[in-house]
Amino acid sequence: MHLEVNQLHKQFQTKRGLLTVLKNINLYVEEGEFVCAVGASGCGKSTLLRSIAGLDIPTAGNILVDGVRVTGPGCDRGMVFQSYTLYPWMSVMENVAFGLKLQGVPQAKRRQQAAYYLEVVGLSEFAKALPQELSGGMKQRVAIARALASKPKILLMDEPFGALDVQTKESMQQFLLEIWRTTNTTILMITHDVEEAIFLSQRIYVLSARPGTIKQELQIQLPNKSDPQIKRYHIFQKYKDQVMSLLTDGSMPVFCTEGESHSG
Question: Per its UniProt record, what PANTHER family does this chain match (predicted)?
């Protein structure tokens, strides 16, 4: 899988004229990578992700998945939103299987596939429950299982843990890393949470304020992320200081680990 965004521009018509939200966006994600795009609220992160998902049409530029231009939504891209977007009248099992149903997958096969991904996210025992019976973290696990069940080439995540409390959010971050490692899913996630981006990703694209542009691409090299204290490590804080400096237009010197390169 190869995602490529080339010279992406996005403008919206407003009462005051054209508003440029994204300008000259160039990025890529390779198969099996976990990449984050981080930026302040209003910098166009969600618009970028919606464009990649095919939900918004770019004003200019190209988005390619394995060399095929994105012109609309497709099952090669799974999407997880900040809001849980579960159908309240459907059971957990039915929610996870819904995308497969739309694809015309036979009932027995879609139930088997949905059951597998419910096991992956640790919610098999809640297969018959309704969304209202679940906590926020559990609802987001269902949303992730639903996206994975269609076996997309890339999973797109729009601040999926933004609505969760701090403790649940940290638990979900660990959970997502486990899912990424066990399923080898390619993930592109946007967030305004700098620590979250550093903790989860292998690479970070730092976006400027509106209009959103790529200020810098950072390679993240951290020791074992299973250590709950990793966010207190000196190297973690160095990365955080660097990203914060970029976001606030600071003049902090660039920090690099050995062999690390930066561009943008």
Answer: ALIPHATIC SULFONATES IMPORT ATP-BINDING PROTEIN SSUB (PTHR42788:SF13), TAURINE IMPORT ATP-BINDING PROTEIN-RELATED (PTHR42788)
